[in-house]
Amino acid sequence: MSISMISRHRMWVFIGLIIVVLASLLFYGYWYYVERDVPIHHASDEEHFKYGSFGAEFDNGVPYLIWQIMPEVCSGILPGKDSYTALGFIYEEGHETPVGAPLRTVGVPRVGLNCATCHTGTVRVKPGEKAQVVVGMGAHELNLQQYIRFLGACAEDPRFTADNLMAAIEEKNDLSLITSLVYRHLIIPATKKALSKQRQLYSWFDHRPDTGPGRVDTLNPYKALFGFDLIDGDKSIGTADFMVLWNQAARAKHWANWDGNNNDVSERNKAAAYGAGATPESLDLPGIERMEEFVRNLAPPAYPFSIDRELAARGEPIYEKYCAMCHASDGIWVGSVLSIAEIGTDRHRFDAQTAELAARVNTIGEGPVAIRHFRKSEGYLNMLLDGVWARAPYLHNGSVPTLADLLEPPENRATVFYRGYNVYDPDRVGFVSSGPEAEKAGFRFDTTVPGNGNGGHVYGTRLAAQAKAALIEYLKQL
Ligand code: HEC
Ligand code: HEC
Question: How many angstroms separate the CA atoms of 391 and 401, rounded?
């Protein structure tokens, strides 16, 4: 072997080493910025419920640094102010993101959704008072449809460029050179693409009435994922009010969801997680199980005003006679479904669930992450009424603003009102839904719009005025 052959051999070894080192760095960089998963841990179960993750951030989380500056870069798209508070998100001190917008690092910190996005709301007893955050209550102020629309519109806005975004990001954060390059060349283009794709997936929004705050179409997102034609084919409206999540243990043997379409609690929770952006592969089982455990024995909030106990006591026998069979924990029909013909409320949400959709959804996942128990039911659920004061507006489509309205024959119920204002009205028992403040803060809800019908559920509507007052007083303490 000559000297020159040895040095050539050495050179090849050297080049080989450099290639290996570069490849490892590249792999490491890819893992670091794209796949590295750092689950979040909150010591308290309630914090975990409000800010924890069930794994929606992998495919559908928006990189936090981009999410944070989108309202200002896309100034003017959000209603009123360039902040997520304009959409009804609840911000608490000491957190970078609002309730229901968990931050989890998947490569980079990403913002997802969790159960609290739709299942935590606020109440104020008077204008000017501090809002009370009620965990488990429907997020009646949150306009989730507008949030999804905003993300898509901003991603496709001409201002959504790497230059604009990087300038806004670097104004708020000190990024290393590598991180800055990765954002500019990798994360920003990927985010733009993912959000545009999401916008496409939700293009059927524009072919249905707006949901407004506190409601979401719970069925058509799945149909879109399965490739149903939601524009020229299926025109159904699956809009439903957010339900409440307390005392889940008491409901373990009940059918769940407004139309009682599933009787496996843990499975229907996983379906909610899939609806909110998790996938069978990304689902964080311990994360979702901890949320599930938290709501098993979560108590409903106490009525925040005084209750006339004597009047309430007079309401009890009226409740027993006219309501208990369907709504009390020992009621013979509670937890089962009442036929659509009998209940007579708006049928759009009921019709949006189909046997075909149930069959498709029942193929999702395998083993512990599988969905197998959805069905097409015959009507709407006879549900427990615990914490009923905090469920306003009432019925599955949130079409009746107060309990006083619900006990009126349908033709006397409010036909137009404003949803999403959090000041409570103890006289009619529901949120203040008319007048200048409600109009300013709220969404104009028109009951003549398809899916918003306020008819049906005529129980108790023919009672005398004093009997209604007593019944309402009793309902406040449930
Ligand atoms: C995008 C908003 C949203 C998210 C996120 C969400 N839910 Fe819901 N949830 C709803 C709506 C809307 C309903 C009513 C569904 C229907 O019948 O159409 C509901 C219904 C329920 C019910 C049925 C309650 C009953 O009394 O029948 C349970 C239980 C529930 N959700 C649990 C969860 C859990 C647990 C999570 C987190 C894993 C979660 N939800 C995430 C919106 C949401
Ligand atoms: C025959 C069964 C039945 C009887 C009797 C009945 N309800 Fe209901 N109730 C239902 C069903 C089913 C729904 C869901 C309908 C819907 O959302 O479209 C419902 C919904 C409600 C809601 C809305 C709950 C929410 O979370 O928005 C309230 C409040 C309510 N009922 C109160 C009463 C009162 C008060 C009485 C007695 C005067 C009564 N109901 C009698 C079956 C019944």
Answer: 10
Cβ–Cβ under 8 Å, residues 135 and 390: no
Residue type, 465: A
Nearest to 110 by CA among 9, 161, 34, 199: 34
**Residue 233 tokens, joined:** 């084919």
Task: Answer whether 86's CB lies under 8 Å from 137's CB.
Answer: no
CB of 155 within 8 A of CB of 209? Answer: no
Whether 460 lines ligand 2, by a CB cut-off of 6 Å, is yes
Query: Which residues lie below 8 Å from residue 269, measured CB to CB, with a gap of 6+?
Result: 115, 288, 291, 292
CA distance 184 to 177: 11
Closest CA to 215 of 292, 294, 146: 146
Best substitution site from 57, 113, 218 to test ligand 1's pocket, by max atoms within 8 Å of Cβ?
Answer: 218
User: Quick check: CB of 358 below 6 Å from ligand 1?
Assistant: no
| The pLDDT value given to residue 136 | 97
Distance from the first to the final alpha carbon of the chain: 94
Q: How far, in Å, is the centroid of ligand 2 from the Cα of 382?
A: 7
Q: Taken in order 111, 113, 119, 123, is the CA torsion positive or negative?
A: positive
For residue 140, the CA-to-ligand 2 centroid distance in Å is: 19
**In whole numbers, what is the pLDDT of the chain averaged over residues?**
95
Q: Give the residue, by CA position, lying nearest to ligand 1 atom 30.
A: 269
Spacing, Cα 326 to ligand 2 middle (Å): 7
**Residue 324: CB within 6 Å of ligand 1?**
no
The C-alpha atoms of residue 395 and residue 251 are separated, in whole angstroms, by: 18
CB atoms within 10 A of CB 412: 10
Alpha carbons 452 and 444: distance in angstroms, whole number: 12
The three-point CA angle 73-79-82 to 5° equals: 35
| 269 Cβ inside 6 Å of ligand 1 | yes
Instruction: Ligand 2, residue 471: give the atom nearest the CA.
Output: 35
CB 117 less than 6 A from any atom of ligand 1: yes
In the reported structure, the alpha carbon of residue 257 is separated from the centroid of ligand 2 by a whole-number distance in angstroms of: 14
pLDDT tens figures, 223-253: 999 999 999 999 999 999 999 999 999 999 9
CA distances from 409 to 128, 402, 460, 467 (A): 34, 13, 9, 15
| Model confidence pLDDT, tens digit, residues 385-428 | 999 999 999 999 999 999 999 999 999 999 999 999 999 999 99
Find out whether the beta carbon of 54 lies less than 6 Å from any atom of ligand 1.
yes
CA pair distance 328, 456, nearest whole angstrom: 20
Structure confidence at residue 38 (pLDDT)? 86
CA distance 471 to 322: 10
* Residue 7: pLDDT band with limits 50, 70, 90: confident
